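Hypothesis: this fold can be encoded by more than one sequence.
Test: take the structure tokens below, design a sequence, compare later.
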């Protein structure tokens, strides 16, 4: 399987687009901020069409994705000093391959349960969102 990192046929799933803010792009993945201020929650989406599972990525791209996940995890650790980082690729609702990276605290709204299905999302206020996005982009070394 050959890498198609900058494939122009990549289209972000509309559900992901509706629930997130774009932070920028790594070499392989689009980096998104989940619009739920209760949790520091990023999502990486490899920019290749028709991916559903990690195994659909070429081996070299799986290594790139793992490096991008490690980089994202390090940035969230620096910004939030979480008790635990949750990293998951579920795809039960959105089939497009995407990986969640969530910084968890023992006093967050869902602890110790998974964040899915707990309460209602709390959208970021505009000013707080813009400030947080700037901090994330700096920590992730993303330029738009």
């Amino acid at each position: 399987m050959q890498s198609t990192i900058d494939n122009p046929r990549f289209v972000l799933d509309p559900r992901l687009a509706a629930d997130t803010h774009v932070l920028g792009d790594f070499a392989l993945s689009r980096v998104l901020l989940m619009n739920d201020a209760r949790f520091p929650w990023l999502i990486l989406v490899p920019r290749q069409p028709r991916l559903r599972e990690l195994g659909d990525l070429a081996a070299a791209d799986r290594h790139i994705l793992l490096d991008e996940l490690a980089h994202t995890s390090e940035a969230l650790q620096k910004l939030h000093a979480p008790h635990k980082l949750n990293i998951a690729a579920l795809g039960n609702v959105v089939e497009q391959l995407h990986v969640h990276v969530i910084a968890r605290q023992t006093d967050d709204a869902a602890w110790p349960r998974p964040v899915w299905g707990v309460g209602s999302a709390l959208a970021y206020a505009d000013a707080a969102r813009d400030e947080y996005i700037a901090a994330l982009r700096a920590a992730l070394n993303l330029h738009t």
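The chain has one domain: 14-140. The chain has a mean pLDDT of 94.
Hypothesis status: open.
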